[in-house]
Amino acid sequence: MSKLQKSPAWEDLTFANNFLFCKIMESEPELCRKILEMLLNIEIEKLEPVQVERTMLETMDSKSVRFDVYAKDDKRIFDIEIQTTTSTNLPKRARYYQSVIDMDNLSHGENYSKLKDSYVIFLCLQSPFKKKRPVYFFENICRDDDEIKLNYRAASF
User: Fold this and answer.
1) E strand or H helix at 100, and its extent?
2) 30 CB contacts (<8 Å, ≥6 apart)?
3) Whole-prediction pTM value?
4) What is the chain's percent helix, strand, coil content, to nearest 5?
5) Fewer beta carbons within 10 Å, N or C terminal of the chain?
6) Counting runs of H as helices and runs of E as strands, what totals does the chain give?
7) In this predicted model, what pLDDT tens digit does every residue of 127-149 receive, in sequence order?
8) d(CA 55, CA 92)
9) CB-based burial label for 32 (10 Å; 0-12, 13-18, 19+)
């Protein structure tokens, strides 16, 4: 017989608890906006309603994605993931999440220029790359000329 896991007491929960994190971000969109502005050093005029635990399945046989916090403004899309366990696959996960976001936001026949900028953000309790940096920003850069950039970004905090 399996033992039931006892739920933590409310007073023991922190912002890193997935349930609490999602509830706060959904019920306090202004806080969500301010956190995004602070993390990305950008200005956001107004967010559309924040969605939590948003699931996307692009085809019947593809891997689905469940975004912890999915938010948009008129020109950008943000996915914020609370990462409470050590994960070695964050780079490929970020790449996959980015592709699902893009597929969901571009209709058949639309020009690629219509794609909104998108950000996949992992809030980690431990440094995912063992470098003890507080923030990591990533973008695709040409190996032969670092002034040539593809303007693709991912971040991990």
Assistant:
1) helix 90-104
2) none
3) 0.81
4) 25, 30, 45
5) N
6) 3, 6
7) 888 888 888 888 788 889 888 87
8) 18
9) buried
